[in-house]
Specification:
The structure holds 2 protein chains of 2 kinds. Chain A is 48% helix and 11% strand. By secondary structure, chain A is α/β, with parallel strands linked by helices. In chain A, the strands form 3 sheets. Chain A has a 6-stranded parallel β-sheet, with helices on one face. In chain A, strand 6 (282-286) and strand 7 form a beta hairpin. The longest helix of chain A is centred in the first third of the chain and has 30 residues, at 11-40. Chain A is elongated, with a radius of gyration of 32 Å. Chain B is built from 14 helices and no strands. Chain B has a domain at 1-28 and 208-330: Glycosyltransferase (Alpha/alpha barrel). In chain B, 45% of the residues lie in helices and 0% in strands. Chain B is an all-alpha fold. Classes of the chains: A alpha/beta, B mainly alpha. Chain B: InterPro entries: PGGT1B-like, Prenyltrans, Ptb1, Terpenoid_cyclase/PrenylTrfase.
């Protein structure tokens, strides 16, 4: 039912179409009843096989007919000729509907289960032929992977094939996808691959800067260059030691230290253990071969947690790409994909003054790509918060005031901070539940954050003073605050009289300060 | 290269509620004999699409409830599976549709639950994947069917859930999306199936929400419509597959909802009601459900709220006590 254009017709045409439909309907009912009757009579011969051909050629999606054919083929012990006819039928059906799941599967099934001398190499050529006709047919691409593994086609050849497809049209996202899989499967994650892929993708992207396929692939390559360190900080809160990570641990990694206690997970990026042996004052992360991946001393903070650790050669290649992007942007200043990639690269490499440059260009992205402006707002928030973390070693106070934040990224990194200032931001649509990580926070300012309610405000155990001035909070949502057991003072302004009254009525222990 | 998209100039965008109700009610009537017969190979799903859409815009009212339930019964098979129509073979796709319709009618307890559970769990393979029927086709669509079907019946513990999740994880791609099998390309529809299944399993931690959310946001074209893969035309059904996934991931604000609404409304059929894949094409129940369901996620008009994971009315999901996982906004 896809791509069927509606045609406007006269009454006479309508009547003719009705008669045509009636004829087709009768043919369909007769044919399908004939097939079903044969099946009920357990007929498993060539005639039975013939009976469903016409129906399938008209509609290859009638799965039950393929099933009956499978039953027949299993009974028949068919000759090579019958098998070839069967494969030919699937080819014909795929011409009618190249996206027919059941026709693709039937072909695969016949080769797997019926054809004892299946020619998978021929099948691979057929895939090549089909993909040259319809370069984005994902059914065929997916089938090709099955076929390539059956005939043990070397990864090199398949990479070469994707290369040919990309060279004939850079915009072939399916081919880029297949490349990503081939590299992962071949375990080719080394730097030389990254470098050669980056240069391939650069020439593709520069040939047609408005085509997104190559840019998405490039974003992946850049994204793979993530900071290598895991641990941000380890510290004690009451009788527990908390470990704060920048990224989740792979399943086979272990945490070691502090007397090898059992570490439990609070969140993928936060682990904790009970205090028992404080003689050891460092924590390490070890991989499955017992190699130390990362380590940190108690109470130390790793300020360069977002720094990239790459070779000089790769850094040179990436710096050269930054220069090329600058050139491209000087010619086409509103090329969205070039601009976005430029921002991502600057942020990844953390070149001089990168934050000003990133923010300036994100602002431009919001204008030229308005459909996704909220995405850019959130991206900007993430960059701002990361920048603060990377440039502050103050372990008590967080200053994120007036940064235009729309999203809470990395809040778990503020687990140990006592004073957190988030005032003058735009958090109206964010989810306050992200504040749940602020276990040590005593003073929290959400002044002028355009909040309209306090839904999902978490039970913060240490929170004493909460500044809510200059927000339009619905009083019905403030019950959440009673879950904060240490809360002593809430600061409001003169325009929040109703909120003030409601808060008074639900708790006697909280002091309301009007400023 | 020109971007593939459609133009929406001079297309009527008024909401045609009454016409949609008429369109949906016309299925199963005499004048649709031809379509009904030619589409019988997927009729059970067709009924789920039509009835869910009707429920959402007709105040939860569905006519001929008894007849519908009788039809489901007529498609029941001894092995516990359901076929799309009598005479056809049972398949996981239609088993889910049958269970969904029964839930919509508040009659799921009258189904042979033990047998259905037996059928669905028999289709799970060692690696955690599911086949669509006994003939062995593996696809992540079937992982969703199995998890949705069993959880609707309160029997999710009857399969190896951890393995199911592991298989879905093995279908994850460089762009954060998912394909039909390990190695297969990301595709809006299959992403919905995988993220939906993970939402049911409570394992959205598998998903890289920022990477996938961005890729999904890039599916929106200047016309406001969403496509399912890069450099493809927009289609109303991706308004559901892509947009509901963004909802599950807490990233629905990363696209422009007003523009999406416009595109969906432009894909209505002004004459007989219903929605088509894109403006000017023939309408059908499939696109009608997914157009209306997407509008429901945007609280449009008085359309009843829909659950982004199950694609069933929220009232049904609440009645069953189900709480599919969703992520909060960043």
């Amino acid at each position: 039912m896809h791509n069927r254009q509606k045609v406007h017709t006269t009454e006479a045409q309508k009547a003719a179409a009705e008669r045509e439909k009636e004829k087709k309907l009768q043919f369909y009912r007769q044919s399908i009843n004939d097939v079903f009757n044969r099946r009920t009579r357990n007929e498993y011969d060539v005639l039975a096989l013939k009976s469903s051909e016409g129906l399938l050629r008209a509609n290859p999606d009638i799965v039950t007919l393929w099933n009956y054919r499978k039953d027949i083929l299993l009974h028949l012990n068919p000759s090579k000729e019958i098998i070839n006819d069967e494969l030919y039928l699937t080819e014909k059906c795929l011409q009618v509907n190249p996206k027919s799941y059941s026709a693709w599967y039937h072909r695969n099934w016949v080769l797997d289960n019926i054809d004892s001398s299946a020619d998978w190499n021929k099948e691979l050529s057929l895939c090549t032929k089909y993909l040259k006709m319809d370069e984005r047919n994902f059914h065929c691409w997916d089938y090709r992977q099955i076929v390539a593994s059956k005939c043990q086609e070397p990864h090199e050849n398949e990479l070469q094939f994707t290369m040919e497809m990309i060279e004939s049209n850079f915009s072939n996202y399916s081919a880029w996808h297949y490349r990503s899989k081939l590299f992962s499967a071949a375990g080719k994650d080394e730097e030389s691959t990254k470098i050669s892929e980056l240069s391939l993708v650069e020439s593709a992207a520069f040939t047609d800067p408005s085509d997104q396929s190559a840019w998405i692939y490039q974003r992946w390559l850049i994204g793979k260059l993530e900071p290598s360190k895991y641990i941000y900080k380890v510290s004690q809160i009451k009788n527990k030691i908390y470990l704060v990570l920048n990224k989740s641990l792979p399943n086979n990694y272990k945490i070691k230290g502090l007397g090898n206690n059992n570490w439990e997970q609070l969140d993928p990026k936060i682990w904790y253990t009970n205090v028992n042996n404080l003689d050891i004052n460092s924590v390490e992360i070890i991989d499955e071969t017992n190699q130390v991946i990362d380590g940190i001393l108690m109470d130390n903070i790793r300020q360069d947690i977002f720094q990239l650790n790459i070779s000089e050669q790769l850094r040179l290649v990436l710096n050269a790409q930054v220069d090329s992007l600058r050139q491209l942007l000087s010619m086409e200043p509103e090329s969205k994909w070039a601009l976005l990639t430029y921002v991502l690269l600057l942020h990844t490499l953390k070149l001089n003054n990168y934050i000003e440059n990133c923010l300036k260009n994100i602002k431009l992205l919001k204008v030229i790509d308005t459909l996704r402006k909220n995405y850019y707002n959130d991206l900007e928030s993430r960059y701002q918060i990361e920048y603060w973390i990377a440039n502050n070693n103050n372990t008590d106070t967080v200053h994120l005031k007036g940064l235009g934040l729309t999203a809470f990224y990395h809040m778990h990194m503020f687990l140990f901070h006592k004073n957190i200032d988030l005032s003058d931001n735009n958090l109206s649509n964010s989810n306050l539940s992200h504040l749940k990580y602020l276990l040590m926070c005593k003073n929290l300012s959400l002044k002028n954050c355009q909040l309209i309610n306090l839904n999902n405000f978490p039970a913060l155990p240490s929170l004493e003073v909460l500044d809510l001035r200059e927000n339009q909070i619905q009083e019905t949502s403030c019950k959440e605050l009673t879950k904060c057991e240490s809360l002593k003072t809430i600061i409001l302004d003169n325009n929040q009289i109703i909120l003030q009254k409601t808060l008074h009525s639900i708790t006697q222990f909280i002091n309301i300060e009007i400023v | 290269m020109l971007q593939k998209d459609v133009k929406l100039d001079n297309i009527c965008k008024t909401w045609l509620l009454e016409k949609h109700i008429d369109f949906l009610k016309s299925f199963g009537k005499e004048r649709n004999q031809y379509e009904s017969n030619m589409m019988e190979f997927l009729r059970m799903s067709g009924m789920y699409w039509g009835l869910t859409a009707l429920h959402l815009i007709n105040n939860g009212q569905i006519p001929k409830e008894e007849e519908i339930f009788e039809y489901i019964k007529s498609c029941e098979h001894n092995n516990g599976g359901y076929s799309p129509a009598p005479g056809h073979d049972p398949h996981l796709l239609y088993t889910l549709s049958a269970v969904q319709i029964a839930c919509l009618l508040n009659r799921e307890s009258e189904l042979p639950i033990e047998k259905i559970v037996q059928y669905v769990s028999s289709l799970q393979l060692k690696d955690g994947s599911f086949t669509g029927d006994k003939w062995g086709e593996i696809d992540t669509r079937y992982s969703f069917c199995a998890l949705a079907c069993l959880s609707l019946l309160g029997k999710l513990n009857e399969i190896d859930l951890a393995k199911s999740v592991e298989f879905i994880k093995s279908c994850q791609n460089f762009d954060g999306g998912f394909g039909s099998r390990p190695g297969a390309e990301s595709h809006g529809g299959l992403i919905y199936c995988c993220v939906g299944a993970l939402s049911i399993a409570g394992r959205l931690d598998i998903v890289d929400a920022d990477t996938l959310g961005w890729w999904l946001a890039e599916r929106q074209l200047p016309s406001g419509g969403l496509n399912g893969r890069p450099e493809k035309l927009p289609d109303v059904c991706y308004s559901w597959w892509v947009f509901s996934t963004l909802n599950i991931l807490g990233r629905d604000h990363w696209i422009d909802k007003e523009q999406l609404k416009n595109f969906i409304l432009a894909s209505q059929d002004n004459e007989g009601g219903g929605f088509s894949d894109r403006p000017g094409d023939e309408p059908d129940p499939f696109h009608t459900l997914f157009g209306i369901a997407a509008l429901s996620l945007m609280s449009y008009d008085k359309i009843l709220p829909i659950d982004p994971t199950y694609c069933l009315p929220k009232t049904v999901i609440n009645r069953l006590g189900l709480k599919p996982q969703t992520l909060s906004r960043p």
